[in-house]
Amino acid sequence: MQLSHRIEHLTGGGSDGWDVYHRARDLIAAGEKVVELTIGEHDIRTDPAILKAMDDSARGGHTGYAEVPGVAALRDRVADRVQACSGVPTTRDNVLITPGGQAGLFSAHCATCDPGDAALFIDPYYVTYPGTIRGAGARPVPVRTRPGDSFRPRAADIAAAIVPGAKSLLINTPNNPTGALYDRATLEGIAQVCRDADLWLISDEVYDTQVWEGAHLSPRALPGMAERTLVIGSMSKSHAMTGSRCGWIVGPEAAIGDLINLATHTTYGVPGFVQDAALFALDQGAELEAAVAAPFRRRRAQALEILAGQNALHALPPQGAMYLMLDIRPTGMSGSEFANALLDAHRIAVMPGESFGAAAAGHIRVAMTIADDAFAAALKTLCAFAATRV
Question: Any signal peptide, and if so, which residues (predicted)?
């Protein structure tokens, strides 16, 4: 029996981008010791107080079907948080709770694109973006950025990439994989293109609590953008709740109403005890968010000091998120060649830039997700390895 073209071609007929990651996991399964700097997973676990709140909720009986749009108190709390950060009036009617940010991305594209429509996204991109767009039945159209621009998109390049049938643009700031934070001028240019071309803007803001330089600005706050922007948020990165799968979409009330209808026919909501834990976590305020972000701030400082003492690699100092993007083109190797050779030689696993799109070719992404001492040692080894290839 033949499966659908959509499911068989979700990755466009090529790699899913996770080849080195899978190689590393296979080595670990075979008993090898591998330093994993691949996936954006905190080295600390979810705070015990959050887990207690989840346990208390489950044992208290919140284990049945939860409201599909999300528990009202959590929707209110997310709305308050978003309004406080953006200045845009926001109520629970602007919020849908989703099973993580990934489900939010898929739902947002289902809401904005009909089958065959074009959906633009910025390159480099998080690995799942093109497949998410294909899964929603749309055509992924990358907008390539430049290392010399710190991987921030130019409005003219976005406008030039618009094709017939284009309905949406997906951006991510702070950015995975590059660590770039889009400044106001960049976001104003993006907003102007969206208004001129009548595009929906899907803004992935899951790293909004991990900002090292500058300040996060949600494009929903710009003039004329609240009615055409869907913001994706998540508890995963801000509160180290990756496995709990709790995120949200914030957008116009009418769009959220239709997205609730989609959730009724797909995910049917998020477990109530998980939502209660998320509400507890958000109620702890910025202090807990800062504590979760603190290890990455420290390791960024470590990394910049280490990188300043060598000449083999060039780094784009990350302004946000939990990653380093390193330019390994002086070695003459592709990102994939470098990552595989590093894994072979030193059992250190990093992600090739090519996993994140053509714009990141000749780069690697390093996740700052292991203990400080181990991270520093691995990065020094990586730099020494690169020096032998220059």
Answer: none
As assigned by CATH, the class of the 5-45+287-387 domain is alpha beta
Tens-place pLDDT, residues 19-68 = 999 999 999 999 999 999 999 999 999 999 999 999 999 999 999 999 99
Tokens representing residue 10 in the block = 């979700």
Output the pLDDT for position 16. Answer: 73
Whether residue 14 has pLDDT greater than 90: no
CATH of 64-284, picked from 3.40.640.10, 3.40.50.2000, 3.40.50.720, 3.40.50.80, is 3.40.640.10
Contacts of 368 (CB under 8 A, 6+ apart): 37, 295, 296, 299, 300, 303, 322, 323, 324, 375
pTM above 0.90, yes or no: yes
Query: What is the rounded distance in angstroms from the CA atom of residue 86 to the CA atom of residue 90?
Result: 9
